Amino acid sequence: MHKISIPQSVIDRVVARRGREHIFDDLDPARTALVVVDMQNGFMKHEVAHSPCAMAHEIVPNINRLAAAVRATGGTVVWIQTAYTDETQTSWSTLYGMVGPKGLEKRRRSLSRDSKGYDIFPDLKIEPQDLIVEKMRYSAFIQGSSNLETVLRRRGLDTLLITGTVTNVCCESTARDAMMLNFKTVMITDGNAANTDEDHNAALSNFYLTFGDIMSTDFAIDCLKRNARKGLVAAE
Predict the structure, then answer these.
(1) Which letter does DSSP use for residue 130 in this model?
(2) 42-82: per-residue pLDDT in tens?
(3) How many CB atoms lie within 10 A of CB 45?
(4) Architecture of the domain whose range is 8-235
(5) Is the pTM of the predicted complex or chain greater than 0.85?
(6) Distance from the Cα of residue 47 to its chain's centroid
């Protein structure tokens, strides 16, 4: 598991700006979605991996625990899968120009819809009521990537808990864009995985300063359960 290290100076600046350390700890569980980004074989199994992240295996139990808590308190779980399509060679040609022919071929082999790499990692517990959304870019929200925004809006969801891999690429990109589309957005500190502790903590710190909240799995679960109880009491 990553060693989480958010500088005290970052926390102090957040509190000075927002008035408290966790601005979204009053989240409404029924309006909350857990968004699980790219926890696919193509990022986790070396034999089929496009870009393996060893730490992604470590966060599987936390994602499963958080998913169970979100479902139990009335929220929604959304699994995001990255897909390679030939069309992206044109519409996202900048990426393939950067990674070159070998990088393109690795991505094609690993993330095409008929490949093992495309599949969600089997230790993750997907339930029938969960949603699956396919994306074509690092961010799930940027134009041309997916219909995730529409899926969430139709269900009245306005708060997102972001987990997955890797922290500083697809997860952070998705989280930043979510906030700029007016979602209350939380990155889960021990529910995201990067290739190094430094990458992980830098992404969390940058996001926390400007874009949203960060919480541990246990803290987020406590918020869900506490606020669900408050809702029940208020309804009585």
Answers:
(1) -
(2) 999 988 878 889 999 999 999 999 999 999 999 999 999 99
(3) 18
(4) 3-Layer(aba) Sandwich (3.40)
(5) yes
(6) 24
